[in-house]
Amino acid sequence: MASSGYLQAAVLLLAVQLLCVGAAAADQEPGTVIPAESRPCVDCHAFEFMQRALQDLKKTAFNLDARTETLVLRAERRALCDCMPTNSLR
């Protein structure tokens, strides 16, 4: 008996959802599409995307270059300190 109550509740919920979807579809007017003349073309979007991607790549390359330079300097300093005896540093 309890399963028939769940079945009725599920059918009622499905009916309410179908009514809500139908009402939402009826609210949209077919003439509200933005005309193609006022929309940017696909090429413009692709160009803007490529510009942003190039800027990100430049930033990443600069950061990697700066980190590499820092690591090389650190390694050179370490190598220099390893070559010198500790008593000559005073």
TrEMBL record:
<dbReference type="GO" id="GO:0003723">
    <property type="term" value="F:RNA binding"/>
</dbReference>
<dbReference type="InterPro" id="IPR028147">
    <property type="entry name" value="NICOL"/>
</dbReference>
<protein>
    <recommendedName>
        <fullName>NELL2-interacting cell ontogeny regulator 1</fullName>
    </recommendedName>
</protein>
<keyword id="KW-0694">RNA-binding</keyword>
<dbReference type="GO" id="GO:0005576">
    <property type="term" value="C:extracellular region"/>
</dbReference>
<keyword id="KW-0964">Secreted</keyword>
<comment type="similarity">
    <text>Belongs to the NICOL family.</text>
</comment>
<dbReference type="Pfam" id="PF15161">
    <property type="entry name" value="Neuropep_like"/>
</dbReference>
<feature type="signal peptide">
    <location>
        <begin position="1"/>
        <end position="26"/>
    </location>
</feature>
<keyword id="KW-0732">Signal</keyword>
